[in-house]
Amino acid sequence: MTIPHLFLPAKSLQDEEILLRGEKAFYLLEVLRLKRGERLYLMDGEGAYFLAELVSGSKGQAILRIVEKEYKERKPPFIISAIPILKGDKTETAIRALSQMGITTLFPFTSERTIVKLDERKKRQKEERWQKMAIEEAELSHSPFYPRVKNIRSFKDLLDELSNIPILIAYEGATEEIEGSIFPIPERIALITGPEGGFSEREIEMAKGKGALLVSLGENIISAEFAPIVFATLIFFSNRFDIPLKVL
What we know:
The strands form three sheets. Strands 6, 7, 8, 9, 10, 12 and 13 form a seven-stranded parallel beta sheet that branches. A five-stranded mixed beta sheet has the order 1-3-4-5-2. Strands 11-14 form a two-stranded antiparallel sheet. The chain is elongated. It is built from six helices and 14 strands. The chain has helices spanning 22-31, 90-101, 120-140, 155-161, 201-209, 227-240; strands at residues 5-7, 17-21, 39-43, 49-58, 61-68, 78-84, 105-110, 148-149, 153-154, 167-170, 181-183, 188-192, 213-215, 245-247. It folds into two domains: 5-68, CATH 2.40.240.20; 78-247, 3-Layer(aba) Sandwich (Alpha/beta knot), CATH 3.40.1280.10. With 248 residues, it is α/β, with parallel strands linked by helices. Strand 7 (105-110), helix 3 (120-140) and strand 8 (148-149) form a beta-alpha-beta unit.
């Protein structure tokens, strides 16, 4: 049986015994059906990786005891994924996969061709939902870290925020026929993919003016919700096998 994993606030892991109520207790007792003496891993999203066991559970509360403490270190590359706001549940498709893959930060953004329009209240609701989703998906992947979901911002504000980080943009115009240069994968990097319809020429020029480099994801057009996943996979693979990228 696979040992369950659960994220808790760091302050909750300071004591040897932990009392859980509400949603977390319900998840352990009713969803996972954890029994007395069974074990799970508790994490804080910053590297704490504690083995614990269920001491007791009833009436909507669970008491856990820390058995063993371990601290994990996040390994590079530290990937920031900037993803566009997409129609329907497409943004969530990307967030779920990226959270399981080990992305460090998610930057949702809007651009000239963004179709979905959100007011401020709906933006905050989306951000809260996406953060919860990112935590849940990281738990499923047994990662001791989960990505932080930043506030939704414009493409221009995104570029300003990432100005001190190497930026790569997936762009269909970055073809193999165009002469490029070799780009070794740095420890920290930001990846940006476009919305339905892609980026406008003005946006690409704006990004290049901020020092962003263009990357091709292949000859075929990839759907907007899958492009961030393919892009992150490419970077992880290139880093793992020490294969530099061709950029424009």
